[in-house]
Amino acid sequence: MGFSFHSQKQCCHTHARAGVWSTPHGLVETPKFMPVGTLATVKGLTPAQLQTTGAQMILANTYHLHLQPGEAIIKAAGGLHGFMGWQGPILTDSGGFQVFSLSELRQIRELGVTFRSPRDGRIIELTPERSIQIQNDLGADVIMAFDECPPGNADYATVAAATDRTYRWLERCINAHQRPQEQALFGIVQGGIYPELRCKAVSGLIEFDLPGYAIGGVSVGEEPAKVREIVTLTAPLLPAAKPRYLMGVGTYKEMVMAIAAGVDLFDCVIPTRFGRHGTALVAGERWNLKNAQFREDLTPLDPDCPCYTCQTFSRAYLNHLVRSQEMLGYILLSLHNITELVRFTQRIRAAILGDRFTTEFAQWLN
Asked: Is the pLDDT of residue 45 over 80?
């Protein structure tokens, strides 16, 4: 099975759409939330547990896996699918965001980025070609172009330079890509909070007719209103026949807003990060399970949720585990949180197919 995207239904009042995206490792029914498995593991969960959440596609990170254990080991294991035991679709980030977050440890040049490894201090050079080579070895279904992600508060000149460099680096990524039939290369739209730069970036990227496109450089320090403005502007400009991916976004409101703009795919570390801090996502709210109100509450976390956590354990038990700092508590909350966000996008998909999107999710659209 190769790559193809089919839009099944378009919302009459917004750009929201429900679709099916075919990849070599299975189908992804969009819109869909994708759990993050940075180091070839979604923290705390086995692949079997992950399957029960309804997740269809997950992420891993080029930068972190290059540092540990190294792409050669993963390639020898049959790529990420064989290495981590997940047989569904996988997407790898290029490592660009992680490198550029190391502001005091890296140097940007036209050739690429030189940075000091936070693990052992060695000097590493990551170029567009090297990023693609690593991702070819990792073997994910979708690989991301190496881009420059400027901070959310960067001035126009800085963002313009980063946007132009991202375009030039994309050309080099395309030329370096050795497995185009097996791995879909996505380009990334940069441009910060500047609409004209976003429009320019889209115009340049779509000339390459890539298998899919991502919107990057949002939620990196901007005001929420600016994020909404940029996503609402950018998403409809991307080709309708290709999947659209909003990088690093995964709250209820952000996803509904982006879906209304025409975005199909999302990822975020929120569900497992919250789980590790004793926080549950329930019906659009955040619950701190350490709170005393749950200490004697013997009802399920969410009676309407089909996950193992909600079907088996009480709020009181979860409160006990979290207060006792037991690992099981963090695992059970992570399992529930991922299920919650995947189900949220599944409900949006059903609402789009049933012409109920703007009414059923009105509270999130305002």
From this structure: yes
Catalytic residue among 137, 147, 267, 302: 267
Whether 267 sits among the annotated catalytic residues: the reply is: yes
**Phi, psi (deg, nearest 5) at residue 328:** -60, -35
Confidence of residue 119 (pLDDT cuts 50, 70, 90): confident
Whether residue 69 has a cis bond before it, omega within 30° of 0: yes
120 flagged as catalytic: no
Mean pLDDT within 292-309: 98
Given this model, what pLDDT does residue 334 score? 98
Q: Distance (Å, rounded) from C-alpha 292 to C-alpha 93?
A: 40
**In this structure, what is the dihedral angle of CA atoms 17, 269, 336, 362, given to the nearest 10 degrees?**
-40
Q: Give the start-to-end residue ranges of the domains of the chain.
A: 4-268, 272-359
- Which of 93, 137, 141, 147 is the catalytic position? 93
According to CATH, what is the number of the domain 4-268? 3.20.20.105
Q: Which residue has the tokens 């990170």?
A: 61
The burial class, CB within 10 Å (0-12 / 13-18 / 19+), for 110 is exposed
- Residue-level pLDDT at 117: 78
